[in-house]
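Posted in: Structural Biology > Protein-Ligand Complexes

Title: Requesting predicted complex, iron/sulfur cluster in pocket

I'd be grateful if someone could produce the 3D structure tokens for the following input. Sequence and ligand are given below.
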Amino acid sequence: MTIGHSAQSDDCPRSARGRRWACRVGRLSVGSPRLRGVAETESNSGTDGAPATDSAGSGTDAGAVATAVRRRPALSPSRASDFKQCPLLYRFRAVDRLPETPTRAQVRGIVVHSVLERLFGLPAAERDPERAKGLLPAVWTDLQVERPELSVLFDGAADTDLAEWLASARTLLDGYFGLEDPRRFDAESCELRVETELESGLLLRGFIDRLDVAPTGEIRVVDYKTGASPREIGEAKALFQMKFYALAIYRLRGVVPRQLRLMYLADQQSLAYTPDEAELLRFERTLDAVWVAILRAGKTGEFRPNPSKLCDWCDHKALCPAFGGTPPPYPGWPEPSENAGETVLDRAD
Ligand code: SF4
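-- Reply #1 --
Done. Output follows.
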């Protein structure tokens, strides 16, 4: 594989808005580390909000961390993004760990990600659209076994909505094949769990949909989106997420990824971005600052609401003081738990 060479060329100019999204050429897998990661993502913090002193997870020299050990609290792209959007939202998700109701669209995203992961596990010659779509029923069945609560999304196998939903998942897979041909290259990893410690001591943790490595050593970080291509806010969030992964790879492997590629399957658009080292180092300082702010809020319990138009998508609006609600009593900085970090829904976009 050569980075920048796919079914559609990645060699694109700067966008009209002057960003380095190269051009528009066009979140959990079932049984994969993403779902298992819900249980693996443990934290080990003191109640004062300061990181504990164990060294598990630091000094990692490979991209994947497969062992489930007790770890210090880590920052994921989703939680960092939450805090930047609204500190109270971060609290509800990361500290209170309030449950959120998955939507059909989110679960469809999980299923499509899983199909693509399984697809890359097949011999290259077998990675065609029909084979991919043929994987859907088994992936959906497996997901319901692993997450029985998702079965309530449909009224049994005869629910006509289910047939439509599966058809829409097939359409997304067609959208994927409109962007690239997976028979032409092998992925180095799919659903790659990355974890690395920054010089500041901040632990980064997340999942990368796919990592491609060319014979030249060039690295491409790929993220699938099952929604439509983003407008301003969505694009900024997506870029934040991709820089997070690029920094993690840079710190783990000492190589700045050659390309960050977002693939929007719904409308067959892709966005490519080329980071540089100085930019990633600046981004590292940004993450350090976000983490300092999180720890400060964690000590005091002062997670302020920050209303925006994104509140319409907040599951916790009824508890938000900005909308007349009352949050539950602050439980204190989280004790070690199996549910810290990203959840299955974070990666279902
Ligand atoms: S409703 Fe808005 S302001 Fe309130 S917690 Fe949710 S995102 Fe934050």
